[in-house]
Every structure is written in C-alpha cells, then in structure tokens.
Amino acid sequence: MPADMPDQQVQDGEDPMDVPPPPSSGPDEDDAHGAPDPDESGSGRGAPRNAGVHPEHPVPDESPG
C-alpha cells in the first residue's frame, strides 16, 4: 500500500498545480545585463567589500565562528 494519497502520487500528464516558468528571451538574458550566474565561481559582482560596519574600523582576517 502506498504511503501517499492517490492525488499526491506521480501521474501521467501535466500537473494542474505546477506553476509555469516566466517567459524569457533565452539563456543569454543574464549576459545582456552583465550579471554572472550566481552559481558561477567568482561571481562576486563587483569590488570586494569591507567586512566591517565602518570602513575605518579594522576587520579580522578570518571569521570568529
């Protein structure tokens, strides 16, 4: 006996509860804006930022945690 109710089991056809993806112009859409893929290595998006609240305060080289 399956653990899931019949309406929660995998069925053939399209799922009426699925949300359709937003329309896009293609995979080059992010490249047009110059923003790298967030999963891409080194996608820091700009200059390194200071870890401190105020730029004149010293910051540790490593995190305390």
Write a structural description.
This protein has 65 residues and is mostly loops. 8% of the residues lie in helices and 0% in strands. It has one helix spanning 29-33. The longest helix has 5 residues, at 29-33. The N and C termini lie far apart (48 Å). The mean pLDDT is 69.
Q: What percent strand? A: under 5%
Helical residue percent band: under 10%
How far the N terminus sits from the C terminus, by CA atoms, comes to 48 Å
Return the average pLDDT rounded to an integer. Answer: 69
Which keywords apply here?
single chain, 65 residues, little secondary structure, 1 helix, 8% helix, 0% strand, elongated
Task: Give the topology, please.
Elements (H helix, E strand, L loop, with lengths): L28 H5 L32
Entry summary:
With 65 residues, the chain is low in regular secondary structure.
